[in-house]
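Escalation from tier 1.

The customer reports that the assembly of three entities below gives different structure tokens on two consecutive runs. Tier 1 could not reproduce it. I'm attaching the input and our single run for tier 2 to review.
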Amino acid sequence: MSAVFAAVSTDAPIFVAQNVFFAVVALLMVGSALKVVTTSNVVHAALWLVLVLAGAAAQFILLGSEFVAVTQVLVYIGAVVVLFLFGVMLTRASMGDDESVAGEKRSMAAVVAGLLLAVMSVALIDSFSDDRVVIDQPQLVTTVADSIFSQYIVPFEAISVLLLAALIGAIVVARRD
Amino acid sequence: MLLNQFLLLAAVLFCIGVYGVLVRRNGMLVLMSIEIILNAVNINLVAFGALTDNVGGEVFALFAIAVAAAEVGIGLAIVLLMYRNRRSIDLSEADLLKG
Amino acid sequence: MNFLLLAAENATQLPLAVSNGTNWFLEHAWIVPLLPAVSFVIILFFGKRMPRKGAEVGVAAVALAFVFAVLTGVAWINHRDNYTPPAASESALVIDGGEIAPDQVVPAAEEAPTKGEVVTEGGGEAEQPTVAIHKSTTWLRNGGVAFDAGILVDGLSVLMLFMVTLVSLLVHIYSTDYVAGDRRYTHFFAFLSLFTAAMLFFVLSDNILQMIVGWELVGVCSFVLIGHWWEEKANSDAAMKAFITNRVGDIGLLVGVIILFFTAGNGSFDILTINSNIVSGGVSHTALIVAAMSLTAAVMSKSGQFVLHTWLPDAMAGPTPVSALIHAATMVVAGIYMVARLYPVFFEGMQIGGSSINLLAVVGAVTLVLAGLVAFVQSDIKKVLAYSTISQLGYMVMALGVGAWTAAIFHLFTHAFFKACLFLGAGSTSHAVHSFDMKKDMGGLRRWMPHTYLTFVVASLALAGIFPLAGFWSKDEILSGTGGWGLFGGTGGNGAYTFMLAMGILGAALTGAYMTRVIYLTFHGEFRGHGTPHESGRLILVPLYVLAGFALLAGLINLPVGFITGNNSSWQERFGHYVQPVAGYFPDIAQATPSYSLAIVSSFVAFAGIGYAFWYYFVKLDRLARATGESLTELPDGLVANSAVARAGHTLLVQKYYLDHLYTDIIVGTTKGVIARAANWTNQNVIDGAVNLAGRWSVKVGRFTYDRIDQPLVDGLANATGRASNSLGDGFRVVQTGKVQQYAALLFAAAALLGGALVVVLSL
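Tier 1 run:
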């Protein structure tokens, strides 16, 4: 977290508004994400997740990727979270408290996650501390669409097959027989 | 804006997600943590795309969103199946792999 | 790929006699494999709903493919005799000198004859080159490497087209009766079709990658059809064995293909490129010999050569038509075909010309004798035929090893007919007595099954190499091709392979003898089975007669030089003339001249083998059987009963040289143990790698040594180490909680540690 602020504080002054926006959203995201993984209420966790996802959409807009931001809102907040809520309902997971997690498990997970974060932070700061993102204008949807349907047509088709397979697979796995 | 601020945000989110995957006992909550991880990756993709002014980053973020949707579908199906078979989605009870 | 352009680009003189086609059937040879492939799909999806359960589609498609193959053959003969190269490309110098008119190179999309190009080997007086037809299209392109798919039509592939479709057609017809009423009847025909398609695809391949695809496809079909009745454990085991044994050879194939791709192919999989590069020299001999040896491993597994042949007798668990088609006539010769196709690799790599021993020839020679010997102790008629097949494949491999290319292919051709006939005949007898056991359930069948008997005897005589049946000509050609007869009058050839000649002659005696034994046990003496046998129906007998007819006459298409009317070339060496490529993608091999003295000697030896077996079974055993009134299968006071050495030899043969024990008990047993323990070890050792590594290895080595090698010597040491590491293993068992999240934690921790190590290393 401190690394984030460090990054903000050393930024060029031209992008003050963006940086402030970034910092606010980033704080919101980190806080909500922490709530997702710590709250004992499953439904609350899903709602906190909405905040994380919306924050990610905001970051996409900051990066000039409007189409991805819109898709993020539509697919994640629109569909995935609803799916989660359905899942919660169908599994009748306790609306109240999730059973408490053993302390040793928690500390183990914290150590692992902290280790990962440390390694990643060191590597990132080491490699990219000079790179600046300059957003002149947002990426046009036309550009994205042209790219998907020309250069990335094969992965696109593969994704469609994958979605179909997942559709069928979900039905097969979950059907009652 | 620095590239690193996005990358570090993504790293933090990733690690929070990992923590959630490791610590949660409820299958649904594990799936949510996985979503956080995937989002962290997406932020990385878009940030690098913006850095190099390359549309590929966005395209692959879109692909990742599609894959994540598929993953949630299958993951929920598995959790439902688990619930139906064991009347519980507590992952700590699923230890058939015990050696 | 346009070879004219290629040749022009490389500015080298590739003496390739390759054309893009002149005849519709030659250019469209890909239709032949396409027909059964379509039939496979149709049978698979709609077969069950058809009036004849899909069999009609299979038969029709293969019949049509056969017609196409015959027409292709006719077109090829015409092409071979009447081909005149276009004037523009009279000589390769034209290409090099840049004198070629641009409009003859550039508009490659125009009609075939103009883009066809030929480089003649010499003056017009010399024999015209066999002009192969090569057509290919780029399948996909990746990283500068083009993966092509195409057809290479020359004498060899046309011959295989003809042979495969003919045998397949007859087997299809035969199967409509033989497997009638089977619960997976439709499935059977579907895979028969797929097999035919795959084999045809394989023989038409123009690049080695495509060959691998065909090679594996026929392997899969073989696996499926061996396990056709998989409900019985033995059958599915046999299928697994065939599949896994073939995997061993496939490694060799892959290694060989990779080597060829990088050396001879220069970044291309194309067979013509590889072959012509090797023929024109400049490819490292070391690379070639390694490639040739790797490919030999593939031949050993696919074509059932000694040490990797054990799957083939077991493969007889499949339905008999499958044995006839796949495990006698076609698939098992895929290895032979591959060698023939990539012959320059072997010829140059193993230096076949001028040497007197090489791996290929030795493998073939050893196989043909050892398999022939095992055939004597089998009581299952199909197993005898299986070992006979192995032995005959040994002949072919040996022939290729000694440089007698034409002889090998000729033997492949004739063998397909008489061996398919024998297998189908065996199927016919088993149809009558519901068993394959000659000793228990057969005997005296000639009384009830005269037609089967007649065709079986004809095919047996052809197999034994009796004049003037098919086997005589082809086997004799192999024997003279060894060049080993040189000491006694001279036959030429590529070297003096005396050992191979001796083994070949010995094999001739064995062949005659074991076939005589089979005929006696099956068709003579008294019937030992139950019920009353009956002759099979017409659908079974017609293929038998057709095949017997080929067994009788097929040899006449390659009469040796000077056999009939001096130099009347319209009758002699026709087969070699049409089949053997003389173009730039084929090595310059020396042709052996036929030798009358050798023919007489080998015939005499074959007769001696038959005569001895005849005396043993038809005279002595028959007399004894009449005297005692029983139906006997062997003499009670024979050699085996009297001599300990013979008994030991007999046991060795019955145990099939203990190869199966070697594989299952020792190799698989220990490997399985090792692998299982290694896997276990990996699981149990997430944390303390080093200690447990040492411990587990000690356990493994210690156990192995303790159990099998040196119990008294290292007993204590091994035990102690074993116990120590066992308890260590128990300690680490705690890690195996079965909780997914804990595993995930370990995974992430390991990833973080490795990533951290990487960061540290990179920042140093």
